[in-house]
Amino acid sequence: MTEPVLALRGISKRFGEVVVAEDLDLTVAPGEAIGIVGPNGAGKSTLFSMIAGEQKPDSGAISMLGRDISSLPAQDRTRIGIGRTFQIPRPFEGMSVFENLLVFATSGAGLHGHAAYTRAAETGERVGLGDVLNAQAGSLGLLARKRLELARGLASDPTVLLLDEVAGGLTEPEVADLVELIRGVQQEGLAIVWIEHVVHALTQTVRRLACLAGGRLIADGDPFEVLDDPVVREVYLGTTLTTEEDTA
Fold this sequence. Notes:
This protein has 248 residues and is of the alpha/beta class. The protein is built from ten helices and ten strands.
């Protein structure tokens, strides 16, 4: 049996009376792409923060390729192959786009000199930022910031990439471009865990979908079967839950 690249066992997390994770288990196989959906406030971004080491679970363990990383700080998790993006982009605004990518190529991927410069430039080109590599990150509009956020995650040469609503705010053609990009990197062996409200982007990309609600995974399996689950649809009351099949 193949060792999971990422495994969460019995993860629990509370903020006062609010439960964001309760005895939660999740495994990700090498090269697997998993989508995570759930209503606002379900704890999806907190889940990513615990995987990335920015917050500690109250109980449970997190392992990567069989190694317990529960006590590792965030910067060490980046170095061993966990990359992430944020729902609200967090560029180093006083640096150029290229300099932002260079930081992650050096501190994350561990590259230096020409190799780091090459990775930063190639990653910027790959996500469509080749024309603005020398622009100050703080001057970018929302869509370019979204691309930079994805590029920063890729520049660190991750084994697992956590994507937090990277499609939000994009036009349909831009979502299509994003889907092709993510498909490409996943086919190269990168494991992806993707939180997204633009559900049709997920159904075009992942083969497994999990729904998080009340701190628990209430469904996990084939994307269209999960989306057709009456319990999943119920927790989405008051939100938009559409797939390509719904809109065809």
